[in-house]
Amino acid sequence: MKKNLQSHLITLIWLALIISVVSSCIPQKKMLYMRVREDADTLKEFVNDRKVTYKIQNGDNLYIKIVSMDETTNDLLNPMGSGGGGGSSGGGGNYLNSYTVSEEGNLDFPLVGKIYVKNKTVEEITDLLTIQLNEYIKEFVVIIKLVNFNITILGEISSPGQYQIYQTDINMFEAIAMAGDMTDYSIRDRVLVIRKTKDGSSVHEVDMSSRSFLSSDYFYLQPDDIIYVKPMKAKQFTFSNFPYGMVMSTISFALAMIAFLGIMNQ
């Protein structure tokens, strides 16, 4: 009788351990990016326009540097310390030495005055400023960069936060990698991208678990995009609802009973 009870208690311990492990497991397919859904899916090339066509808006900041052979011209056209090679570098320095687009969409630049830049790309503004400056100086190069290229990554991510981008474009995978990748409890097939519009914001749901995402309009990000990675319901169950205390108490009680029965059998 005692041996049967001891055997049942051991079985109970194993069941408790198995339930605990199984309840905390997540299917591997839910943790994969770009998985193949069907055997017939053999497509390996996806077309996506790499060029980011972001158009400058009110309040944007542009870092502008004019490089010429004449130091006087450099000092005149780079009065904020961005010319001649002696200016501040890095994100903070570039921001302080940048030009802010006014509410009317204008950029006030030395020598040429106000230039309307709203709804123009950085490349278009570079060409426009080059044409304007050609009337006053020769042999120069115009360098323009968008300073306020920030993205925000929130939710089920290893290192959520706001990130400053120091390149002309960035895709979703690069952005997620910057934030330390998604956690095991992230929902990869319903990631939200919140994007600024002229009237406010728009929300788009993307499937990063599918290879077709490589052709998505939201594969490449734009300035001030917000990425939100939603958590699985399993996370709440695993960490909040699963009765770990009860399981551990049951195991402790069973071990005590086994020890007691062992003493009684001696």
Structure, described:
The structure is a single chain. The longest helix is centred in the N-terminal third of the chain and has 22 residues, at 2-23. Helix 1 (2-23) packs antiparallel against helix 7. The chain folds into three domains: 2-24 and 242-265; 28-51 and 149-235, Outer membrane lipoprotein wza fold like (Roll); 61-146, 2-Layer Sandwich (wza like fold), CATH 3.30.1950.10. The chain has seven helices and ten strands. The chain is α+β, with helices and mostly antiparallel strands. The strands form three sheets. A five-stranded mixed beta sheet has the order 7-6-10-8-9, covered by helices on one side. It has a three-stranded antiparallel beta sheet with strand order 2-1-5. The chain has a two-stranded antiparallel sheet with strand order 3-4. A hairpin with a 3-residue loop joins strand 3 and strand 4 (113-116). Mean pLDDT is 78; it is low at 82-89.
Can you give me a brief rundown of this structure?
The protein is α+β, with helices and mostly antiparallel strands.
Descriptive tags:
about 270 residues, alpha+beta, Outer membrane lipoprotein wza fold like, wza like fold, 3 domains, three-stranded antiparallel beta sheet, 7 helices
Mean pLDDT across the residues is 78
Q: What fold name goes in the CATH topology slot of the largest domain?
A: Outer membrane lipoprotein wza fold like
Q: What is the radius of gyration? A: 30 Å
Give the total of beta strands: 10
Biggest beta-sheet profile: 5 strands, mixed
Overall SS class: alpha+beta
Strand/helix succession: HEHHEEEHEEEHEEEHH
